[in-house]
Amino acid sequence: MTVVTDDTLPVTPRAMRDEMVVFVVMALLLAAVPFSGIYPFFVMQALCFALLACAFNLLIGYGGLLSFGHAMFLGTAGYCSAHALKVWGLPPELGILVGVAGAFVLSIVTGYVSIRRQGIYFSMITLALSQLLYFIYLQAPFTHGEDGIQGIPQGRMFGVLDLSKPTILYYVVLTGFLGGFLLIYRIINSPFGEVLKAIRENEPRAISLGYRTDQYKFLAFVLSGTLAGFAGSLKVFVAQNASLTDVHWSMSGEVVLMTLVGGLGTIFGPVVGAFVIIAMQQYLASFGQWVTVIQGAIFVICVLTFRRGVVGEIAHYFRRSL
Amino acid sequence: MQALYAQLLVGLINGSFYALLSLGLAVIFGMLNIINFAHGALYMMGAFVAYFLLNLGGINYWWALLIAPVIVGIFGMILERTMLQWLTGLDHLYGLLLTFGIALIVQGLFQNYFGSSGLPYAIPDELKGGMNLGFMFLPIYRGWVVVFSLVVCLATWFLIEKTRLGAYLRAATENPTLVRAFGINVPRMITLTYGLGVGLAALAGVLSAPINQVRPLMGADLIIVVFAVVVIGGMGSIMGSIITGFALGVIEGLTKYFYPEASNTVVFVLMVLVLLVKPTGLTGRAA
Fold it and tell me: Of A58, A259, A68, whose CA–CA distance to B92 is shortest?
């Protein structure tokens, strides 16, 4: 698998310092949002998708595995959290836990099946699995089919944080996003992440060096799926519903698009891509299906001319790791 | 029993579409190393071209069977020349992403102008009505779809496995550089192959127009099932694609009769089972 990335650059202290500087700037900017007059719900939504795209990027950018079914983790965690909050009446923190646990179990099962094939087959299998799940959720009673689970109570997190207040909810979502982001960053720069990159670059060689590549890929899949589920659980509090759109293949496609626009295999690319795509949907919402056409056009343009993505191009230009 | 036979027939018809589409995917993958995500959109275009031919040009079904695949095939060849050819040498996944983008564009455009509801396409007069076979009532058009698809599939198999052109094609799949050294224009063959695969999808679209109505998203969900069919059957063998396509259609039909709740999911469940038992697919080589 050879994805166009620039992380052939060595992981030097300078690279780490650059990345941490960018991270701190990003965190400060995001923390300032409630004081800026920007509509917080837009940013919260974008943050959830950014975390989803980062989780997806862990698999494609560092493991070389293109999952075309990541919406299944988003949707499954969403349904589990929504059910736990609304029907079982659990507090928010446990609701999130239930959602993440659901995505964790799902990623173990789907990972076990899909990791058996590589490359293009892996993409087709993940897509087919997510479609299988879509039909199950369409018919299962607890998801309420086409209506979805509506009017989910936001509740008080840890008994004190009133999530129905937008500002508090915003900082909770932001904390969740930053925590997930740092965890992914840590995974990428761990010895485990290095082996993943080796597998992406040349799997037979990694095998010959004695690595059980299937186990590494499986673990990467489970980590990615579980983190994607975390994004789905957070999204429940923002949207206050869980519906079939979150499991649909078009959602999986959007995640791919966000990561592609931002830059496959870059650290900050998925975040930038998520904000770009969500903003575009927001502004073009009145144009109906033209949004789909434009998304398709962006896919085509990115693949033909712009394979590094926004952040990838910037990093390449300055020869920095971002 | 009537209902069982009726569902079997529906299964055979769906199987025909699976076979035609997965056949095209396999042929394209062999030459271009691309999984054509736009296959479903081009299948839909085939149906729409037939609809336009009838309603704007007054050209009947029989001509549409010929003309629609040619028009969509030419459209596909333009796509290949202008976009897909630039992906040579890149990772497979870029081909998937590019054709996914093309599918979004095509489906989005048709949805803009035609909404999401179906447009009717009448069954041609010659194929109206039905036959009583004693054990079941066979609508002639449905029988025709199954027989005709089978003939087209076998003709494609013959073209690729038994003719000189097919031999060039198979050789170019194995080693394009060597085949070029023999003076064969491989890039043109790649373009024609894409046109052929896409034309088969369009043909399936025309065949399905009178049965399933003409809808902008008619190919969107179908292509995912066809992907599962391809995973089950593998893309190594033409005959394998044909047999797997028809077989899965029949299994789906049987499921509709015995356990209708699972009819949407049975192909995916079978895919999971096959992956657990024989990860390389039924006929496939390791990829």
Answer: A68
